[in-house]
Amino acid sequence: MTTTRGLEGVVATTSTISSIKDDVLTYRGYSIQDLAERSTFEEVVYLLWNGELPTTEQLCSFKRTLAENARVPDELFTFMKKYPLDYVHPMAVLRSAVSNLGIYDPDAERMDKQSNKDKAVRIQAKIATLVAGFSRIRKGLEPVPPNESLGFAANFLYMLKGCTPTEVAAEMFDKALILHADHELNASTFTARVCVATLSDMYSGITSAIGALKGPLHGGANEQVMHMLEKIGSIEWVDDYILNALENKKKIMGFGHRVYKNGDPRARILKTMAKKISGLQGDGKLYDMSVKIENLIKEKKGLLPNTDFYSATLYHELGIDHDLFTPVFAISRTSGWAAHIMEQYNDNRLIRPRAEYNGARLRKVAPIDQR
Ligand SMILES: CC(=O)SCCNC(=O)CCNC(=O)[C@H](O)C(C)(C)COP(=O)(O)OP(=O)(O)OC[C@H]1O[C@@H](n2cnc3c(N)ncnc32)[C@H](O)[C@@H]1OP(=O)(O)O
Ligand SMILES: O=C([O-])CC(=O)C(=O)O
């Protein structure tokens, strides 16, 4: 048997959903740059689930269906109000909330294609409502019901803050959702596929994926980037902090990637967006610090930022609470998880690799008084 630590370089499945080739990321054959410039998140979700971009009519109907499914059962908010709100992490809440959604879906166990597509719509529509609702509940506010007249991105910001976002904010957030929607066989997507390859249901798959995304080596890195920026505090402390961290072999959050060795194309787009929004409404402090960190780490370690690095500045400038950065990532990635889950069901085989055993040799159980 040969083993590969972290399954690096192992090709574990075929997929028609997204591809990373020569450092270019595509969804169903369209580059993410192109999609971010010329489409909306709803169009991208439709593309991921159906293989083609929607026509005007198909998009209208899809947006309507998403909007109609955005409300969540009241019970979920009632549960949230009882959680230990002084310390619980929103990703832990989201992991439980999506699992709970499954309990209230009478079709949760149905496995035909149409039922799975309907469930994907329901989860995608409701996950934004759950994140925004929890954010308000922990501040002692009531959740804001979804506004069916707004697009997905604008509606999330509306439910979060209770007022309609500016056009620029909605557009930036929409692009960020597009950029995070799918990413080949990343850890959370692989988790989802492993889960549903047992023929478990879609709620189980998405719940498992949320658990995997939560970790700081994966989606949880965007929140950690923000903590680092806060700890550094000011541009003149960047050198001290980063050089010290590198000397102590600490990982710098938001840098490095298992697949991209010449840089993450999403990070380049997010950097431009972070610069734009910082110029429009911030003081540019976080952006300037981030650029200095990027240059220093590149010089000292040859490492480049990944998608989580500049998304932190962008989300901060959009007024999103720092511990909601990863739940926001989950809102977007739900589209990719659902696409992969449906692809897995279409041509399923149980995913069950082997482990090379290197533990103790075969031995006898000694009676307890002789151990
Ligand atoms: C959406 C996403 O999931 S994007 C990734 C988000 N995660 C992060 O930003 C966390 C920080 N980054 C990392 O931990 C890693 O780069 C990962 C997990 C993303 C990829 O890891 P791997 O492919 O397993 O690389 P690995 O961790 O083995 O690192 C290889 C070498 O680069 C170094 N390295 C990699 N990333 C970093 C980093 N962010 N800071 C400092 N050193 C790093 C490692 O210390 C290691 O050095 P060594 O060979 O001297 O021991
Ligand atoms: O692909 C990965 O390993 C992590 C990543 O960038 C993502 O999930 O967006």
UniProtKB/TrEMBL annotation:
This is Citrate synthase. It comes from the Bacteria. Pfam families: Citrate_synt. Keywords: Acyltransferase, Transferase, Tricarboxylic acid cycle. GO terms for molecular function: citrate synthase activity. It catalyses: oxaloacetate + acetyl-CoA + H2O = citrate + CoA + H(+). Belongs to the citrate synthase family. Pathway: Carbohydrate metabolism; tricarboxylic acid cycle.
